[in-house]
Design a protein that fits this description.
544 residues, alpha/beta, ABC transporter transmembrane region fold, Rossmann fold, four-stranded antiparallel sheet, 10 strands, 10% strand, ATP hydrolysis activity, membrane, transport, Probable ATP-dependent transporter ycf16
C-alpha cells in the first residue's frame, strides 16, 4: 500500500517541478525580452546614424556609390547586422560558454580522453574555415548583385514613362533584369550549397571524434586507467559538447551575412569626405561680393595634376560686385555648371580660392555658406510631400508670411491657390503631379524663402515652353533685385540685361565684361549671339 505521506510528497515534488519550469520559462522570457529590446534600440540607432552620415556626405561620394547599394545598406544590411547581433547574444555566446564549460568538466574527468577529443578538432576546424571562406565570398557577391538589382528597380520605376514611351519594357525584362537574375541564381546556388555543407561536416567530424574516443577508451579501460562509470559519464557529456557546436554551425550563415553587411555599413559610416566641413566662420550682414581667384579644378580630385589639359576649370579669375548679375555662357562641356557647384562647395578647387565678401568659402561653416546661396537647378527637383514642405524645405518652424511672399515673388501664388488644398497639395514623388513650369516656380520660391544674398540659376528656363518661361523670367527680375545673381543660360536672348558675362571655353575664361563691351569686341560672345538670333529678336526677347 501507498503510505500516507506519499501523496503529500508527490504534491511537493510536483510543485517543485512546476516552480522550476515556471522559473526557467520566466528567465527565458526575460532573456528574449531584453535581447529584443537591445536589438531594436541598436537597429533604430544604426539606421539613424547611417542616414545622418549619408545626408552629410559630399557630392563626390554620391557619384561613386550606386543608389542600390545605399538603399541596401539602409534596409537589408541593417537587418542582417541586427540578426548577427541577435545570433551572438541569443545563441553564439551562450553556446560558446557551454562548450568551454563542458570541455573543462570533461578534462577533469579524464585528461587523456579529452586531449584525444581535442586532437580531432583541427581537421574539423580546417574544413569548416575553408567552407566559411567560400560562404564569405558568396555572401559578398550576393550583396553586390542585390545592390545592382536595387539600382535597376529604382532606375526603372523612376524612369517608367521614358521606358514605356520607347517600348523598352522587353529590353529591361529580357536583358537588364535577366542578366542580374541569372547572376543572382548562380550565386544563390553556391551560397546554399556552402550553407548546406556545414552541418554534415560537423556531423562527420563528430563521428570521427567518437571513433577516436572509442579507440582511446578501449585502450585506457584495458590498462585499468579508466573506470566504466567514468567512461559512461564522459560519453554522455559529449552530447552536451556537440549541441553548442551544432548551434554555432547553424548560426554561421547569419554571422557571415552580418559580417559582410557590417563591412558595407562601416565603409559608409567612416568614409572620409573630400569636401570637409572644417570652417568656423558664420558671416553676418553679407553683401554678396563674389571673387574667383585663380581657381583650378579636376574631377580626379588629385592635388597635383601634371597636365593642365586634365583640368575641367583652369585659372578661373573674375569679380562680381555685390548686387550685380553675371551670366555664365559657353558650349556644352565648357564647365558652366561645375563653376556654380564650386561656389556652393559641392566640390572644392584643387588650386585657388572662391571668396564671398573677402572670406574664403572653405573658412565658412558649410551650412552658413549654403544659407547665403539660393540654388535653382534646371530639373527643379521636388521631394515627396506638400508644396509647403517643398518651399520651406528643411524648416521645422515654418514662417507662413515668408512662404506667401516667396510664392508670390516666384509667380506661383495663382496656380497654388487653384490646386485642391493649396499649399497642402501633395506634389507626388519627384513632383510628378505638377507641370514643368509649376515645379520650376516652386523651386524658385524655395530659393526665395531662405532670403539668400546670392542666387544661382542653372538653365532654369531652358526646358520650358514660352509661356512658362515668360512667367518665370518675370519672377526672376523681381527676386533678383539687390542680390548677386549667377545665371547659366543657353538662350542668349534672355541675358541681355545682365551686368556681366563670362564666356567659357574648354574650362577657361576667354571673354569677360558687360554685354555691350563684349559685343564691341566682336569675339566669341558676339559670334554665339549672331549664330542664335537676328538683331530684332535680341531686343524683343530680352528678359534681363
Amino acid at each position: 500500500m501507498i503510505g500516507k505521506g506519499f501523496h503529500s510528497n508527490l504534491l511537493v515534488e510536483t510543485a517543485k517541478i512546476l516552480f522550476f519550469i515556471s522559473l526557467r520559462s520566466l528567465a527565458l522570457f526575460a532573456q528574449d525580452a531584453i535581447i529584443a529590446r537591445v536589438i531594436t534600440e541598436f537597429q533604430v540607432s544604426l539606421r539613424r546614424d547611417l542616414f545622418s552620415r549619408l545626408l552629410y556626405r559630399d557630392t563626390v561620394f554620391y557619384y561613386n556609390v550606386s543608389c542600390g547599394n545605399l538603399l541596401y545598406s539602409c534596409t537589408s544590411a541593417v537587418e542582417r547586422v541586427s540578426k548577427l547581433l541577435y545570433s551572438l547574444l541569443h545563441s553564439f555566446i551562450p553556446s560558446f560558454v557551454q562548450f568551454c564549460g563542458v570541455l573543462v568538466y570533461m578534462f577533469f574527468m579524464s585528461p587523456p580522453l579529452t586531449l584525444s577529443l581535442i586532437g580531432t578538432m583541427p581537421l574539423m576546424l580546417t574544413t569548416y574555415n575553408l567552407l566559411e571562406r567560400v560562404l564569405l565570398n558568396s555572401t559578398k557577391r550576393l550583396q553586390e548583385t542585390a545592390g545592382a538589382l536595387s539600382s535597376l528597380l529604382s532606375d526603372t520605376f523612376r524612369n517608367i514613362r521614358l521606358i514605356q514611351s520607347y517600348g523598352a519594357q522587353k529590353y529591361m525584362l529580357e536583358y537588364k533584369l535577366k542578366n542580374i537574375l541569372t547572376q543572382l541564381k548562380s550565386q544563390s546556388y553556391q551560397f546554399e550549397y556552402s550553407k548546406a555543407a556545414i552541418v554534415p561536416i560537423i556531423t562527420i567530424s563528430y563521428a570521427l571524434s567518437v571513433l577516436v574516443l572509442l579507440l582511446m577508451s578501449a585502450y585506457l579501460v584495458g590498462r585499468g586507467s579508466l573506470s566504466s562509470t567514468t567512461l559512461i559519464t564522459f560519453v554522455s557529456s559529449i552530447a552536451f559538447l556537440i549541441e553548442p557546436l551544432q548551434v554555432i554551425a547553424s548560426n554561421a550563415v547569419e554571422l557571415r551575412n552580418g559580417e559582410v553587411a557590417w563591412e558595407l555599413i562601416r565603409g559608409f559610416l567612416h568614409a572620409r569626405p573630400q569636401v570637409a566641413d572644417i570652417g568656423t566662420d558664420e558671416p553676418q550682414n553679407v553683401k554678396g561680393h563674389v571673387e574667383f581667384r585663380n581657381v583650378c579644378f579636376s574631377y580626379s580630385m588629385e592635388k597635383h595634376v601634371s597636365n593642365e589639359t586634365d583640368y575641367v576649370l583652369s585659372h578661373i579669375q573674375f569679380n562680381v560686385p555685390a548686387g550685380n548679375s553675371v551670366a555664365i555662357i559657353g558650349h556644352s562641356g565648357s564647365g558652366k555648371t561645375t563653376l556654380l557647384e564650386l561656389l556652393s562647395r559641392f566640390y572644392d578647387p584643387l588650386r585657388g580660392s572662391i571668396l564671398i565678401d573677402g572670406v574664403d568659402c572653405r573658412n565658412m561653416k558649410l551650412a552658413s555658406l549654403r544659407k547665403l546661396i539660393g540654388f535653382v537647378p534646371q530639373d527643379a527637383p521636388l521631394i515627396s510631400g506638400t508644396i509647403l514642405e517643398n518651399i520651406a524645405l528643411g524648416e521645422i518652424h515654418i514662417d507662413m508670411n515668408r512662404v506667401y511672399y516667396a510664392a508670390k515673388a516666384a509667380n506661383a501664388w495663382d496656380f497654388i491657390s487653384e490646386l485642391e488644398g493649396g499649399f497642402s497639395y501633395d506634389v507626388g514623388e519627384g513632383g510628378c503631379r505638377l507641370s514643368g513650369g509649376q515645379k520650376q516656380r516652386i523651386a524658385i520660391a524655395r530659393a526665395v524663402y531662405t532670403d539668400p544674398r546670392i542666387l544661382v540659376f542653372d538653365e532654369a528656363t531652358s526646358s520650358l515652353d514660352a509661356e512658362s518661361e515668360a512667367a518665370i523670367q518675370s519672377a526672376l527680375q523681381v527676386i533678383a533685385k539687390n542680390r548677386t545673381v549667377f545665371i547659366v543660360a543657353h538662350r542668349l536672348s534672355t541675358i541681355q540685361s545682365v551686368d556681366l558675362i563670362v564666356v567659357l571655353e574648354k574650362g577657361r575664361i576667354i571673354e569677360f565684361g558687360t554685354p555691350s563691351e563684349l559685343l564691341k569686341k566682336n569675339g566669341k560672345y558676339a559670334e554665339m549671339l549672331k549664330a542664335q538670333f537676328s538683331e530684332a529678336s535680341i531686343v524683343e526677347g530680352s528678359f534681363w
